[in-house]
Amino acid sequence: MNQDIVKYRLTKDEKERFEENGYLSVPNTLPEEMVHRLTDIIDNHYEDALEKGETKSNMSYNKTAFISLDPLFLELVDWPVIFPKIGDILGWNIYLYHSQLSVSPPPIENVAGQIQQLPAQKDEKWPWHQDNGQLNEDLRLTPPPRVSIKVAYYLTDMSQPEKGNTYIVPKSHLATAQPAPTDQDNLLEGAIPFCCKSGTAMIFDQRMWHTVTPNYSDITRKVLFLAYGFRWLRPMDKMNTDHFSGLREPVRRQLLDLDVTYHNGISSHYWMTPNDVPLLSWFKEHPDKNPKI
């Protein structure tokens, strides 16, 4: 890995804020040039999906396992501004178990030359949830333990609400139940819109309650989600990483789960040697100066 990433380790203040609130906003994570390059790739893929009839121009489009769609996406797997923070939160025994490309155009239609809001979208219930679905229920612990975190890279300016913002409930990662509904439609108690400029990343705990919301603006919202979990957590996507088999960078190979070995018949997801987890060596060479979460 690039040794410059050491300067992006999680600070004591960042750790405290993440632990208390369940999320961390990291502005200026992606330079403007990278935002443009990623946006161009997404636009091309989205246009292709429209032509194939996989989505419609006024519907949200989500593509899982997007990492394999373009070599540039691979750069995000260990993006130097963000990845060391992931490691400081979860540790070295991790990999990328889920990725999702999200495009949310305005829910509009052209009627006799007039752009109109689609009424069905206005009444849509917001899908509040914690990540990992049934896992949180099966653990039967309140609150469930942290087993993964997600990074959202916002490629669109989301500095104002009603642009399809992610709504979050800060501190709900430690709640013993779903936050109570309020008198306002769709809002849970304590919910706020996550507003940010393009190039910002949000790191959040899988236990924090959050939801996507309708886009009532005149722009198309574009976000890339990458989720990291412990290596024994099974993939959420049907990930096709075969064409990455020639990668030489050991940490990326770990993050893409390319080198699963077996020791006396036991998978290295559960019983590992240092060779199975090269990220361990990096952490030993660069110990965290702040207390562990």
From TrEMBL:
Transferase is among the record's keywords: no
SUPFAM superfamilies associated with the record: Clavaminate synthase-like
Organism: Candidatus Kentrum sp. MB
Pfam family, one: PhyH
Cofactor(s) for this UniProt protein: Fe(2+)
Name of this protein: Ectoine hydroxylase-related dioxygenase, phytanoyl-CoA dioxygenase (PhyH) family
Record keywords, A-Z: Dioxygenase, Oxidoreductase
Domain of life from the UniProt record: Bacteria
Gene3D superfamilies found in the cross-reference section: q2cbj1_9rhob like domain
GO molecular function annotations of the record: 2-oxoglutarate-dependent dioxygenase activity; iron ion binding
InterPro entries noted in UniProt: Phytyl_CoA_dOase-like (IPR008775)
